Amino acid sequence: MLISTTAWRALTEAGVVLIPRDADRIELTYGTSRATLTVIASPTPLRPRDIAALVSRHAEPCLVIVPAATPGVREAVEAAGWSWLAEDGQRITGVLRIGRQRIGLQPPAAAAGRSAKPGRVPWGTFTLVRRMIQRPYATQQELAVLVGVSQPRVSQALRSLAEEEIVRRTPSGWTIRDIDAAIRWWLATYPGPGGISTYWYSLPPPVEQARAVVERVGTADRHGVAVSGDVAADIIAPWRAPNRAILYARTGVDLAGAGFVPAGEEEATLEFTVPKDPGLWPPSVEEVTVDLPLADPLQILWDVQRSPGPDSEEAAQRVWDALRRRHRDRGYAA
């Protein structure tokens, strides 16, 4: 998540409206001023020369998010006309440039440390496992189409997964070696969907909230929004009444006009994310048999596992069982 719940709440309390535009860009509105910024998040503090390097690579205004910022870093960011936020785990400080407005969030705190860039997430490998669970005994060419990457990239990922004994090659094509082991591997290594998340509260049941967001995003493009978490789990493996709606969208929308109010993560009834992970969207060839567009089943399982409620583990097991049955049924039909 590029913007944490703490930062989201701090911006909201400062009167700033945040709308994700894609997995890396947000639109900030303050009064009549508006700005669209690219979010650059670093897990460790940066140095002034790091900021200079970023400015040379990005022509558009950016929002830099770091755990702490030295005076030199703050000066370098503001000299470029950019915005910055520092989050030390307890409070948010920073300066936002929204049009001609300059909004300060508490006095900044000094910090020092080495810069570091997070490693690149192998979205293609995670997507490959998703598709192989849904499509047993597929050729490399078929998998390349399903994953949306080149055949050499699929071949490279298959070799790596085969070394970990996740997949195997058969005369009928590549397939998952053991469905339960593959799911465990995926859940243990998946870093989350990335992107930008916002949290909202509304009174209707989560299913109705999900429908409202789907309509808000646009029913003309069913592939532009995906329902996950409890609501999706209740469709594919009914067990309990949904506690929270989780939705993914390719572009962000302002949900305040649909009866929602911003909320913190704990009290939120709806989580809305514009993700980085391209694999959570089911392939276009996947048959749609329900009235709500659903996320990839592994994504639904991952979201159910982290959903609130004392029986989330039982609900997740139901989704897991449904995934196993679907994989085996499709394998027998191959």
Fold and architecture overview:
- There is one protein chain.
- The protein is an alpha+beta fold and 334 residues long.
- The chain has helices spanning 5-13, 48-57, 71-79, 123-134, 140-147, 151-163, 179-189, 206-217, 229-236, 297-305, 312-333, and strands at 17-20, 25-30, 33-41, 62-66, 83-87, 92-98, 101-105, 167-170, 173-176, 196-201, 225-228, 245-249, 261-262, 270-274.
- The strands form three sheets. A seven-stranded mixed beta sheet has the order 1-2-3-4-5-6-7, with helices on both faces.
- Helix 5 crosses helix 6 (151-163) and helix 9 (229-236) crosses helix 10.
Order of helices and strands: HEEEHEHEEEHHHEEHEHEHEEEHH
Tally of DSSP helical segments: 11
Cα end-to-end separation: 38 Å
- Read across the widest sheet, the strand sequence of neighbours is 1-2-3-4-5-6-7
Query: What is the number of E strands?
Result: 14
> Main beta sheet, described?
7 strands, mixed
Average pLDDT across residues? Answer: 85
Q: What is the number of independent domains? A: 3
In short:
The chain contains 11 helices and 14 strands. With 334 residues, the chain is α+β, with helices and mostly antiparallel strands.
Blueprint (SSEs and pairs):
Elements lengths: L4 H9 L3 E4 L4 E6 L2 E9 L6 H10 L4 E5 L4 H9 L3 E5 L4 E7 L2 E5 L17 H12 L5 H8 L3 H13 L3 E4 L2 E4 L2 H11 L6 E6 L4 H12 L7 E4 H8 L8 E5 L11 E2 L7 E5 L22 H9 L6 H22 L1
Parallel strand pairs: 3-4, 4-5, 12-14
Antiparallel strand pairs: 1-2, 2-3, 5-6, 6-7, 8-9, 10-13, 10-14, 11-12
Helix pairs in contact: 2-3, 5-6, 9-10, 10-11
